[in-house]
UniProtKB/TrEMBL annotation:
Alphabetized CDD domains for the sequence: Trans_IPPS_HT (cd00685)
Listed PROSITE patterns: POLYPRENYL_SYNTHASE_1, POLYPRENYL_SYNTHASE_2
SUPFAM superfamilies in the record: Terpenoid synthases (SSF48576)
Cofactor requirements of the protein: Mg(2+)
GO MF: metal ion binding; prenyltransferase activity
Protein name as catalogued: Probable farnesyl diphosphate synthase
Gene3D superfamilies in the cross-refs: Farnesyl Diphosphate Synthase
Taxonomic source organism: Enterovirga aerilata
One GO term (biological process): terpenoid biosynthetic process
Keywords: Isoprene biosynthesis, Magnesium, Metal-binding, Transferase
InterPro entries: Isoprenoid_synthase_dom_sf, Polyprenyl_synt, Polyprenyl_synt_CS
């Protein structure tokens, strides 16, 4: 059974946002409107202080740097498609964005991926120092749980379930475990299943958490949540493979361009990786109504990444 129903994102946002928002502002692209709403909420959750410390500046720098806001958008859209017509999923989605930002700060550290740039700007540790970057990441994780704990429009039981979902996504079965496998398993050839598992933990875990949170917010049945969970799992795999293809890493020796990290691309080659990408996209697409908000959003995201009009069918 396909999930979802047709959603007018603009009209939903216009009615669900604060009363000061005018419906005419939603005449732009629905996706841009949704991202703008997410950005506004994040800025409200992290207001600029009169006398900010270096730590507070680093936190705002890490979480407010412009991005696609995929995880909070998935959370809101999935909740809408499951029947929750307000923005009760917005704060849980923003909590996921905080966790995502914290993970990027840690990933970029010299002891991890040693990346000097993030989204075209100096990585947080380059801008504020490694010590402050680590503290900012810890603070973002803490704030994510606090945000869920005070999320409006939800019962205490719902908030507890959301906290459980977030904890699972961050721990050894999610981001932490995926990063460990990425760091310690990158100097040898591995089976495709091992790559898929690492990709799921690093990328797919937060996508799955997004739709699971949406299910809790919308009080959906477990069967409906499971359909979305399968969609999010395939989406996470496709997203990571697309990143590998864009990076262009991989060679005959099975190593990436940095000579250290093995990816699905370096193991299978570009043609094999494209085949896996198409399979995961087809499976994700099969779970959605083509006119629904989730399908529209995912198509827009992949269109941005590939430059193709139909981003759900990238051919690169």
């Amino acid at each position: 059974m396909r999930i979802g129903r047709r959603s007018d994102l603009g009209s939903k946002l216009a009615s669900a946002m604060a009363s000061s928002e005018r419906a005419s502002r939603c005449s732009r692209s629905d996706i841009r409107v949704l991202r703008a709403a997410i950005d506004r909420r994040l800025k409200a959750l992290f207001p600029r202080g009169d006398e900010e410390t270096g730590l507070e500046q680093a936190i705002r720098y890490a979480v407010l740097t412009p991005g696609k806001r995929i995880r909070p958008a998935l959370t809101v859209l999935a909740a809408w498609e499951l029947g929750r017509d307000d923005l009760a999923a917005l704060d849980p989605g923003c909590a996921l964005e905080m966790v995502h930002a914290a993970s990027l700060v840690l990933d970029d550290l010299p002891c991890m991926d040693d990346a000097p740039l993030r989204r075209g700007e100096p990585a947080t540790h380059r801008a504020f120092g490694e010590d402050v970057a680590v503290l900012a990441s810890v603070a973002l994780l803490s704030r994510a749980f606090a945000t869920i704990g005070s999320a409006p429009g939800l019962s205490a039981e719902q908030r507890l379930r959301l906290i459980d979902i977030l904890a699972e996504a961050v721990g050894t079965q999610g981001l932490a475990g995926g990063q460990f496998r990425d760091l310690r398993g990158g100097d040898e050839r591995r089976a495709v299943a091992a790559f898929s598992d690492a990709n799921h933990r690093k990328t797919g875990a937060l996508f799955v958490a997004a739709v699971e949170m949406a299910g809790v917010v919308a009080q959906a049945s477990e069967a409906r949540i499971e359909e979305l969970r399968a969609f999010a799992t395939d989406l996470g795999q496709a997203f990571q493979i697309m990143d590998d293809l864009e990076d262009g890493s991989g060679g005959e020796n099975g190593l990436g361009e940095d000579g250290a990290k093995v990816t699905v691309l370096s193991f299978l080659g570009r043609d094999g990786a494209r085949g896996h990408l198409e399979r995961h996209l087809a499976q994700a697409r099969a779970a959605l109504r083509p006119e629904g908000g989730l399908a529209m959003f995912v198509g827009a995201v992949f269109a941005e990444k590939t430059g193709r009009a139909n981003g759900f069918q990238p051919r690169i």
